Each structure stands twice: as structure tokens, then as C-alpha cells.
């Protein structure tokens, strides 16, 4: 696998319509753009490190009426396919989805303006999960270190600057959350917050059930809450990404499921970094009705 690592990994990101993406996605962009949805597809959309795997596991459990054994039938990234992820000759989310039976669960990190048009055309339901920016950047920094498709992150200071400038995979967090927030007015989009899920998972799962027009008994909902708690998922090989090959993700650098808490940013930001971040944040989020909690 050694030569493979050299071929694929740590390459610079490539701009697609102004958004930095992995080289394989950029190279095969026409495949992504022309992806054909089915009306019963469900899309889980997030900016990276915002609770994607968590919500994917919850939704798969809802689709399987809380049957935890069924949800161990395969690893999470095969149950909820990462649509745009393409590494030519190795991995192709579009092709995997085409081979999948309905109803399909689809994952994307694309900003709203890059989403294949077919999702809007077929009026597919979308679940968008957002997490406060400071926790996202800390989590992303560790993820960059272990997930080798990314360029090297540099120091924490350097990575923070890249994040603020939107020079990371999937671009600006600010544009991403605001773009999807605005879009919810015209489409079937359920907008959830990571912090709410953390604070009251049961309430948020009930919102999901309502949105998905599903009804589950109380005890099943409680079971889903338990099964998707951080500690249980961290030890679940079908959800924690430990099955990914080492050339792709190195868990010894940092586990995929690291802490799963709100407010970890306080252990990383210096006072000066915090102040610089806040000034920039206020400027970029000015005029938006979108509000985040940086801790719970």
C-alpha cells in the first residue's frame, strides 16, 4: 500500500467553482454534478466534523425500526454512502449509490450551491446538521492529521488561519451553514444543531421521526438514544471508522471518534486566537438569523 499512499494522499486541494475539494472529486466533478437522485432518497448534509456519522447512525436506526443488529450489517460508510467521494480507481460514491437499493441514505459535505440539481428536482428530503465553528475547527484539525486525503494541516495556529480563510476541504464554514440555512425556506430541509442533539438527543430524534413521517414506540426511541451515545458508538466497529485501511486513516494519530463534546475549543484557543476569531465571526455572520451555542 506504500506507493498508493504516495499517489493519493496529502495532495493539495483543487478548486471547484471556488470551493476547495479533494483532487479526485474535482477530477470527476461531472459525475457528481449529473448524479441522478430518486424521490425517496434521503440526504444527510453537513460541513465536515459536525456530527455526520452520529446523525447517519440515528437515521439508519430509524429506517430499521431501532434494530441494532441490522445496523451492524455493514460499516456506516456503506450504509450511508458519501456521495461525492471519488478516488479514481479505488472509490466512487456515485457508482456505489447507483448500485444501491432504495430507499437510499446519502451523505454529502457539499455546500448548497454545489449540490447536484437532481436533489431539488426530485424534492428529496434533506437533514442538515450544523455545529458551532470553534468546535468544528478543533475537530477538523485533528481529522486533518489522521485522514490522509487531506493536505497536512500544519500547526494549530496555521490551520486556524486556513479555516478562517476558507482554505480547507469544503471551503468556508460560514458560507456553508448560511447557504443551507437560507435554502431551508424553499425546500424540505430539517436543520438540526449538534449542540441540541448533545443536550437533548431524545427531543431531536423525535424531530427526525416527525420529519421522516415515522412513528416508533418510546422504548425504541430510548434504545436509539442509548445506541447512538458517543461512548457506545466509539466502541462500535460498524460506526467508528476503525475498519478503514491505515493508508486512508491513521487512528494512532487521533481516533476518528475523538471526544464528541461541546466546548472542547476552550482547550485549544489562546485568548488572542479567540478574540481574532470572534471579530471575524461577527463580521461574517452579520445579518444572518442563524445562531449557535459555543457550549452547552
UniProtKB/TrEMBL annotation:
Q: Which reaction does it catalyse?
A: 4-ethylphenol + 3'-phosphoadenylyl sulfate = 4-ethylphenyl sulfate + adenosine 3',5'-bisphosphate + H(+)
Annotated ranges, domain Sulfotransferase: 39-288
**What keywords are assigned to this protein?**
Cytoplasm, Transferase
Q: Which GO terms describe its biological process?
A: sulfation
**GO MF annotation list:** aryl sulfotransferase activity
Which GO cellular component terms, listed alphabetically, does the Swiss-Prot or TrEMBL entry include?
cytoplasm
- Per its UniProt record, what InterPro entries does this chain match? P-loop_NTPase, Sulfotransferase_dom
Where is it mainly found? cytoplasm
Name of the featured protein: Sulfotransferase
Amino acid at each position: 500500500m506504500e506507493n498508493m499512499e504516495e499517489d493519493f494522499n496529502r495532495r493539495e486541494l483543487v478548486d471547484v467553482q471556488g470551493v476547495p475539494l479533494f483532487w479526485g472529486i474535482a477530477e470527476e466533478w461531472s459525475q457528481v454534478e449529473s448524479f441522478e437522485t430518486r424521490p425517496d432518497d434521503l440526504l444527510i448534509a453537513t460541513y465536515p466534523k459536525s456530527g455526520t456519522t452520529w446523525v447517519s447512525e440515528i437515521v439508519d436506526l430509524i429506517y430499521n425500526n431501532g434494530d441494532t443488529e441490522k445496523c451492524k450489517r455493514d460499516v456506516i460508510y456503506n450504509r450511508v454512502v458519501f456521495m461525492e467521494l471519488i478516488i479514481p480507481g479505488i472509490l466512487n460514491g456515485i457508482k456505489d449509490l447507483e448500485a444501491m437499493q432504495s430507499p437510499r441514505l446519502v451523505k454529502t459535505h457539499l455546500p448548497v450551491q454545489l449540490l447536484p440539481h437532481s436533489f431539488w428536482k426530485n424534492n428529496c428530503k434533506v437533514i442538515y446538521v450544523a455545529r458551532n465553528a470553534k468546535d468544528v475547527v478543533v475537530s477538523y484539525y485533528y481529522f486533518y492529521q489522521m485522514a490522509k486525503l487531506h493536505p497536512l494541516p500544519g500547526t494549530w495556529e496555521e490551520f486556524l488561519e486556513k479555516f478562517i480563510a476558507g482554505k480547507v476541504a469544503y471551503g468556508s464554514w460560514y458560507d456553508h451553514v448560511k447557504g443551507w440555512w437560507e435554502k431551508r425556506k424553499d425546500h424540505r430541509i430539517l436543520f438540526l444543531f449538534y449542540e441540541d442533539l448533545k443536550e437533548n438527543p431524545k427531543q431531536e430524534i423525535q424531530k427526525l421521526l416527525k420529519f421522516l413521517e415515522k412513528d416508533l414506540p418510546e422504548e425504541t426511541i430510548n434504545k436509539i438514544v442509548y445506541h447512538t451515545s458517543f461512548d457506545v458508538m466509539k466502541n462500535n466497529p460498524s460506526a467508528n471508522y476503525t475498519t478503514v485501511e491505515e493508508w486512508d486513516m491513521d487512528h494512532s494519530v487521533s481516533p476518528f471518534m475523538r471526544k464528541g463534546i461541546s466546548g472542547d475549543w476552550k482547550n485549544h484557543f489562546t485568548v488572542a486566537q479567540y478574540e481574532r476569531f470572534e471579530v471575524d465571526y461577527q463580521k461574517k455572520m452579520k445579518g444572518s438569523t442563524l445562531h449557535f451555542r459555543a457550549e452547552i
